[in-house]
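Record copied across here:
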Amino acid sequence: MALLATTGLSKFYPGVRALDGVDFELRAGEVHVLFGENGAGKSTLISLISGASQPSSGVLQINGQAVHPRSVREARELGISAVFQEFSLIPTLSVAENLLLGDEPRSAGFLDRRAMKRRARELLDDLEFDIDPNAQVSFLSRAQQQMVEIAKSLRGKLSVLILDEPTASLSDKEARRLFSLIDRLKRDGIGIIYISHRMQEITEIAERITVLRDGKKIATVDAKTTDHSTLIKMMAGRTVEQIYPKIESKPGRLMLEVDKLSTRGGVREASVHVRAGEVLGIAGLVGSGKSELFRAIYGLDRITSGRVRFDDKDRTGARTVSLLREGFFYLPPDRKSEGLILDFSSDSNIALPVLGTLLRGAFGLLKQGDRGRITRAAGARVELANRNASKRVGLLSGGNQQKVLFAKGLTNDAKLYVFDEPTVGVDVGTRSALYRLIQSLCEGGAAVVVISSDLPEILHLSHRAYVMRAGRVAGEFHGDQITESALLGLFFDGGHVDRQLELSE
């Protein structure tokens, strides 16, 4: 008997069939991955299972008994707990207060804060999460907040755990700790529904995969015997070759030259360069220094020594706003905290880089026609649907938010584009659209840098590649030298490669 099962589960909105008659089952002690593009129905399915919304039709069963959770709280009482991409933490409260919210220990009718901290510490220690229970959540990193969310989900009765892109904000070390926790939960008979776009994670931790497309179930397959190309074709209806475009390389003049750069953030004597008309890949584990290097080049982190030349001018320590005006565009890895203003519309976000240069009309007001023309053109290049242009960015899917972030870089004719983790948390269809944009920028004469922890991205897009390790450039590769084994061989000290971290197509 399945631990959890859905039969004919559907969810209809006016004019939209978000989920269409999905049959799904989860066994005790297994990781069952939901795989599909944004809009495929993954989020809708887990929202119905977790009680965040109710189905239009169909049946949900726990251990063979039909259940009807009408809220997240009711689902938790049934043993179903979810960790969503959007955190549910209260930023002004402490870690301990968040972990025990609604179940606070009391003494003589008052909150027992000493007992609260003790229970929170015990929970965090049991999970091996090194987080201060007294810390205010707003001061935690996104990775630490993710760990608090996971800890919160494990409090109390649990039989079904839902994890939605749980490693998107975690370093490799933190992700390995999460996978160890998942192994422990499986041994305890807990069933785990797992959503991820990262192929290597799916192969490593899952037993089965259910593929969704356009709100319908396509198939359920064995995770260990189904290759990645088959999964991608099932999910997107396209082959791997159709997802990654063949980018023509015509290296031109030197656009960026970095000589023995060191930073306060741990980068040590790194030297790199990129030319117009080429895609440069920067590979390495999270924490290797690859992001820190380019943040310093872009003026976001402090340079302690070394030189930066951009467009044949010394720009060491230059201000970010100056580099932006000179044609240097940097796309940050965290779209929500650094890249976008979530309360603004898509077109308002896209227009931000050029607000100071748009022609102004009477009384100094922006000419809306000029702004609209620029934002529509940029939106069209990233394949952003017109209906999303006026929507508040915070209401869009992760893939559409990433398209808006890309579009911000298209309002000016930049000479150098640096894309830091450009497709984190987005589906294959959106990835394909963004890869085509990278192709058009490079073939149009721009210099492009792709910083990525997703190794297939580096393998398929780069004309040259550097590997970063422990803050240093560990190696440089050209053309056919850019192979999985060559790059992975430099990810770890001494060339040691952890088998479980190997990535494949």
